Automatic annotation (TrEMBL), chain A:
This is Phosphate transporter. It is a multi-pass membrane protein. It comes from Streptomyces minutiscleroticus. Belongs to the inorganic phosphate transporter (PiT) (TC 2.A.20) family. The keyword Transmembrane applies.
Automatic annotation (TrEMBL), chain B:
This is Uncharacterized protein. The chain crosses the membrane at residues 6-34, 46-72. Keywords: Membrane, Transmembrane, Transmembrane helix. It comes from Streptomyces minutiscleroticus.
Length: 413, 73
């Protein structure tokens, strides 16, 4: 470890911070439905998810060989480019957390990498068609795949289970939900902790500490697993509330169908080789379960804000990543300044979040579920309206606003 | 640009079929267990329902085990 330079040290710490935000951003994927249907107490749920994430990190050491999966040209990538990309991804993760919007952490990382790589080496370093096949199409496909499965499964479970005593079946649904949520947590730990291990290993290789193609050292595995588990345990309660209560109202049957569909779609996609974002799969499954019940509703205003956030993930994280790379290119003072800006930005977001905190105690309150407060909302409000009191009004504005978000994608791609 | 429609299609198909099958099986198991409880409350027994329920749960447990195998492998 004696050869680790200051820059390399900063990259490693930042990668672990990203891993941490990834953990608490994605707690909702596994546990939102479990918490909102009351299958597990909130604290128990996040503790279980954290343990399974940690276990998942150790289960497989087949670390991702590339961090971007071919989206950018990684030959000769510099540690400061990785650092700039991580800054973009972390800030986007925190902002979407503040707004309580589930969005993909991997896509945020891709966005940051694209921005930083373009700033560092020009547009040629980005593989445009891979962006379409790995980010844009999965973003459309994931909610459809998981949503259709969850909707059908919800319908089926209501049909089979009708006429039975609700008290007699509730224990069963509870067990089912816990099992499928556990699978999602385990898969998340394996996938996402490995992404961080991949980043740190790549940084160590480019910094000359490790020889190319080496396995990650044990301390990398342990620290990545711990960072993601700690993030998961602290729980992104804002996002949990949106996913568990904000998008739709879930009964235990629906929660079970949604979680099973999410677990199946995640495993199927990673095994068959068309990778889908865990977050997008889970959000889609929750909406599908909402639609599958007779008389069930999906709050489209919340869903539209979420879709807008998905569309903005790549450009927004990319812009921050590009800005950060512009600074880090200037030398050591630029790296230090970027680090200071990252800390300041994260601090600001945290302070804003304190104004209307969502904690373990009020995670299941529906009152403000769809309405995150704060000045930052105005930025997103420009793209999507906050949920309006009049339903027709909100729906109308929502349909107008979504095309607005669309053209921004090609602009950055 | 090459979009792997076949892979996407199979993800869709597999997710749909497996989810519906698992949820269906599990619900059958839950319903059968509930029936047995009602029968027990009336003083009767429902061995068939109990056997069916445990068979359903065993199939679901096997699916979960396969899921874990996929994660580890």
């Amino acid at each position: 470890m004696e050869h680790i330079t200051l820059l390399l040290g900063i990259v490693i710490v930042t990668a672990l911070v990203f891993d941490f935000t990834n953990g608490f951003h994605d707690t909702a994927n596994a546990m939102a439905t479990t918490i909102s249907t009351g299958a597990l107490k909130p604290k128990t749920a996040v503790a279980m998810s954290a343990v399974l994430n940690l276990v998942g990190a150790f289960l497989s050491v087949e670390v991702a060989k590339t961090i971007s999966g071919g989206i950018i040209d990684e030959a000769g990538i510099q540690p400061e480019v990785i650092f700039a990309a991580l800054v973009g991804a972390i800030l986007w993760n925190l902002l979407t957390w503040l707004l309580g919007l589930p969005s993909s952490s991997s896509h945020a990382l891709f966005g940051g990498l694209i921005g930083a790589a373009v700033m560092s080496a020009g547009w040629d370093s980005v593989n445009g068609s891979t962006v379409v096949t790995k980010v844009l199409i999965p973003a459309v496909a994931a909610p459809l795949v998981a949503g259709a499965a969850a909707a059908l499964a919800t319908r089926l479970t209501y049909r089979i289970g009708r006429g039975t005593d609700e008290r007699a079946t509730s224990k069963g649904y509870r067990a089912g939900q816990i099992a499928s949520a556990g699978l999602v947590s385990l898969a998340h730990g394996t996938n996402d902790a490995q992404k961080t291990m991949g980043i740190i290993t790549l940084a160590l290789v480019t910094g000359g500490v490790l020889v190319p193609d080496s396995d990650p050292p044990l301390w990398v595995i342990v620290s990545a697993g711990l960072a993601i588990a700690l993030g998961t345990y602290l729980g992104g309660w804002r996002i949990i509330r949106t996913m568990g209560k904000g998008l739709t109202d879930l009964a235990p049957q629906q929660g079970f169908a949604a979680q099973t569909s999410a677990a199946t779609a995640i495993l199927a996609s990673s095994h068959i080789g068309f990778s889908l974002s865990t977050t997008q799969v889970c959000s889609g499954a929750v909406m599908g379960a909402g639609l599958g019940r007779k008389g069930g509703v999906v709050r489209w205003s919340t869903a539209t804000r979420m879709f807008a956030a998905w569309g903005l993930t790549l450009p927004a994280a990319g812009l921050v990543g590009a800005g950060a790379e512009l600074l880090t290119k200037q030398g050591t003072w630029g790296v230090v300044l970027t680090g200071a800006l990252l800390v300041a930005g994260s601090g600001t977001i945290w302070v804003l979040s304190r104004r209307k905190p969502v904690t373990v105690d009020n995670v299941n309150d529906t009152g403000a579920a769809a309405e995150p407060a704060g000045v930052v909302t105005s930025a997103v409000a420009a793209v999507t309206p906050p949920p309006a009191g009049v339903v027709a009004d909100g729906g109308l504005k929502a349909t107008i606003s979504s095309p607005d978000a669309e053209p921004q994608r090609p602009a950055t791609v | 640009m090459k979009i792997d429609w076949a892979a996407l299609g199979s993800v869709f198909g597999v997710s749909l079929v497996v989810t519906v099958a698992l949820v269906g099986l599990f619900t059958l198991g839950i319903v059968a267990l509930a029936k047995r409880e009602t029968a027990a409350a009336r003083g009767g027994s429902a061995a068939a329902a109990a056997t069916g329920a445990y068979a359903c749960f065993a199939a679901c447990a096997a699916a979960v085990a396969y899921g874990i195998y996929l994660i580890v492998a």
